[in-house]
Amino acid sequence: MNAEQIRTSLDALAAVEPAFAAGIARVGYPGPRLRERGFATLLRTIVGQQVSVASADAVWRKLDAAVGDATSPQRVAAATDEQLRAAGLSRQKAGYARSLADEVTSGRLPLAALPADDEAAIAALVAVKGIGRWSAEIYLLFAEGRSDIWPAGDLAVQIEVGRLLGHETRPSEKQVRALAEAWRPHRGAAAIFAWHHYNTDMSVI
Fold first, then answer.
1. Which of 118-132, 145-159, 188-202 is predicted with the least confidence, judged by mean pLDDT?
2. How many angstroms from the chain centroid is the CA of residue 152?
3. Residue 65 maps to which CATH number?
4. Domain ends where: 98, 118, 142?
């Protein structure tokens, strides 16, 4: 979603949920968070699991050098375990990287033609080892710009939905999923705003 689409969706949300209107007044509209569609973005998601951004970037650079081009599923699929491990991938992540590369190169995971239905697309992605629901949702939201993706399992989303709606404790994933039903078809913008609100230093407002 581009900036205009996010703004339009948030305005629609603000009209039905005063908490969004108040939140926008406090921190303004978020900018777009776009990622490249395809294999490289999913592989970078795997590389970045449970490590810092700096560590993930360092591993990515080593991986890119080790295989010749980490954005190429063919090169990653052809890499040896030793090459992947030398780049800094754990044994588990090396397996995930090869599994993703194999799914893409075989055509079993057609990233250029994922199902139009969001849940069907999520199912296709989570069938790959190393891709969980959160990773699939993040990919569909940022790389494909799907406007109603709702990553209810994201901790920051849970925290900010609770804060925005005045909850005393952080709502659970199940509660956050239920709360957002009224926000269809704009849940993607709601998630982007939740992250924006979460990352804004309220002390300077």
1. 188-202
2. 11
3. 1.10.340.30
4. 142
Radius of gyration of the chain (CA): 18
What's the CA gap between 29 and 92, in Å, rounded?
39
Domain boundary among 96, 121, 142: 142
pTM for the model: 0.88
The closest of 195, 149, 157 to 175, measured between CA atoms, is 157
- Write down the pLDDT at residue 204: 46
For residue 153, count CB atoms less than 10 angstroms from its CB and return exposed for 0-12, middle for 13-18, buried for 19 or more.
Answer: middle
Amino acid 147: pLDDT: 95
Number of domains in the chain: 2
pLDDT over threshold 90, residue 77: yes
Token representation of residue 151: 């990553």
Is 101 in contact with 83 (CB distance < 8 Å)? no
Q: Which residue has the tokens 């052809």?
A: 78
Is the Cβ–Cβ distance between 40 and 71 less than 8 Å?
Answer: yes
One domain, residues 98 and 181? no
> Which residues span the domain enclosing 52?
39-142
CA dihedral 188, 8, 114, 72 (to 10 degrees): -80
